[in-house]
Amino acid sequence: MILVTGGTGLIGSHLLFQLAKSGNTIRAIYRSEKSLKKVTKVFGYYTENPTQLLERISWVQGDITDIASMEAAFDGAHYVYHCAALISFDPRQLDDLIKTNTEGTANIVNLCVAHQVKKLCYVSSIAAIGKATKGKISTENNEWTDTNVSVYGLTKHDAELEVWRGSLEGLPVVVVNPGVVFGPGFWRSGSGSFFTYANKGKKSFLPGGTGFVSVNDVTKAMITLMESDIDRERFILVSENLSYGEVLKRIAKKLKVQEPIKQAPFWALELFWRWDGFRSKVLGKRRRLTKNMVKGFRQQETYSSEKIRTMLDFEFDNLQDILTFCCEKFKN
User: Could you tell me which residue ranges the NAD-dependent epimerase/dehydratase domain spans (predicted)?
Assistant: First the structure.
């Protein structure tokens, strides 16, 4: 029995599709009936009969922050993919991020140990990878520091510590650290906002850049690692390191809209994060830009996936293929 948390998210829903297609016995966690519609939508991007595959999934309503609600889901589970997380870079949501990402992961680890799960795969993030010095490439061995790190990155790092704690208690584990994950179906949040923004034909783009990867590469790596004998290892999953401008230009070209031509000036970003902070305090609105985010825009972050390429002879898909696929689904 395979158990998946966060099955209604971008990575989780694509993982469920791959597992169901392979005929596995699957159980997945969901929080609300509304969220299940997202999974049906994602399955429909890849098959004309999503219902047939969805019937292979046994759904259990639960919340990773409530360990009692998760007990039944772990009954008979042999392998666990922990994809559930809260993604936010708003400092005002730090308590919620800690509760979901760090404490929620601690709950999953404790349940895995208690139920003698054979292996756990945890979906972390490149936000939990230590920053490389300017001009250097980030690897899994970078030293972690709390300097200029987002609140999201802090909680994902602490969540990884919970996973390593579980490994010391005898739980076999693997951790993946994906870059920005591109996949269809979630157009109003995360990487989906790249398509929404580009479709508006905006002229400007943010400075800096980071690592990007296809959602199908992420799920393929996760499944391969879980089926291997590899234990107590973490892997960066990045197929290309690109500037935000280059990504938006590629998307705009495929959407056949005006490509962005102008990088947003730093003086404007410095003013905006201050105004955004004031707006958040006065009106209680969610932060869209923070001081740390602007600092991150001042350099191109570069990540190496050499470790997984070498250990698994892993080959990443062409990133342009997933961008093209996403653009087609976005237009539809």
Answer: 2-228
